[in-house]
Fold:
Amino acid sequence: MEPITIIVGVVGLGGGAAIGAAVYRSITKGKERNAQAEAEALISGAKAEATKLKMESELRVKEEGMRIREESKKAVDDGMREVKEYERRISKREDVVDRKAEQIERREKQIETKERGVADLEQKISARQAEVDGVLKEQKEVLQRLSGLSKDEATKMILEKLRGELKDEMAAMVIRAKDEAKETAEREARDIISIAVQRFAGGHTADTTVSTVDLPTDDMKGRIIGREGRNIRAFEKATGVDVIVDDTPGVVVISGFDGVRREMARRSLEKLVADGRIHPARIEEVIEATKKEMEEVVMNTGKQLCFELGFSDIHPKIVMLLGRLKYRTSYGQNNYQHVTEVAYLSQAMAAELGLDPTLARRCGLLHDIGKAVDHELEGGHPAIGADLLKRFGERPEVVDAAGKHHEEMNAAWPYTVVASAADAISAARPGARRETLEKYIKRLERLESIASGFQGVEASYAIQAGREVRVICNSAKIDDKAAVLLARDIAKEIEKERNYPGEIKVCVLRETRAVEFAR
Structure:
């Protein structure tokens, strides 16, 4: 390449560079001017905005200050009003306190005045009392001289007179009280008992102490007796009953006081008759099997009764005894049916009286539990039953009902009285019990002897099957008011016996007969 060309190229490059630099400086200065103008515009806008914000802030501060001042002023005004109200109330209370203080001061002065008056009055009374005592002493001396009686004799005379007057008044009071009690107690008791009886209408049957076993042929009687009576002796010894073989066709009678043993003997004899093999060894085998069967029967019977009456917490021993009551009778009345009836009657009466019906039903169910074992233990069935129930954890109300339902002791719970009343209702129902003629006559004689033992009684008669005692008294010794007391005393004495069901009416008759003869 030629040098000229190189030089021209270099000169051209240098000129282009200078021109480019000049253009760049021109562009840069334009941008700087634009940036400065924009910056100045932004600064002026920011200053205007800052001025505006400052004015707005100052305005808000002024408004907030005014609001705070107004609220403070209002709070101060409210506080001042409350202070003035408190001051007014305090002033008013101070006035009340001042008035009360003045009243107390006046009352204290009045009390002091009255105390001085009382002291003066006591002195006057003491002087007057001394004067009266002196006068009384003088009058007593005068009376003793005039009457010729000492103080003790006069006192005795006055007391005797008062005793006679009080006796008449007491008889009148007894009559009135008796009439009032009859108007209320008898009506309410009659209503309660009638409601209880209506709510439970149970049937009753009279049981006996014998059972019969039907025989297929009369030849079976000889097999039951055995050679020289060995079979019948073995049977009676093992069962504890009497077997009566008489001329009655097709029947053998089993007699025994214990209903459980009698039922066991009846079942055993029926099995022997059906089997046909009757000899001492077979008899013992059958009776032993029947004993176990009877234990299950008795337990199931007791469980069934407890289930019917809604009791599942009775001790198994007591349940067993309840089952035994099905084979126990009292005056011909079945005790199983009797305790069931007493339980329902007790429940009905307890409901009318506002007592616990469930507890009353339990007391009625277990009140005669002692009869299940009274032939095995010493003592009466109430004491035996109470001891058994207490031993097996029964409630005190139930124990008291069992031990005192015949009113031999004072009842500790109202349930005992309810059970006693239900027991009397069940026993007194027509046909429920039977009585031997000898016991019936003894009871009538005892009633007549109780009434005849009172002073002034001339004769007494037990009538209406022992439901009434008619007493004839001496009219010269017993007046009308004393007759009322006599009837009450006889009734109380009969109540002590308590060997009768229901109630006994005591009727005292007093009459005056005037007899004169015309000649």
Q: What stands out?
A: The mean pLDDT is 79. Residues 154-199 form one domain. The chain has five domains: 106-140, 154-199, 208-297, 310-434, 437-509. The CA atoms of residues 121 and 127 lie 10 Å apart.
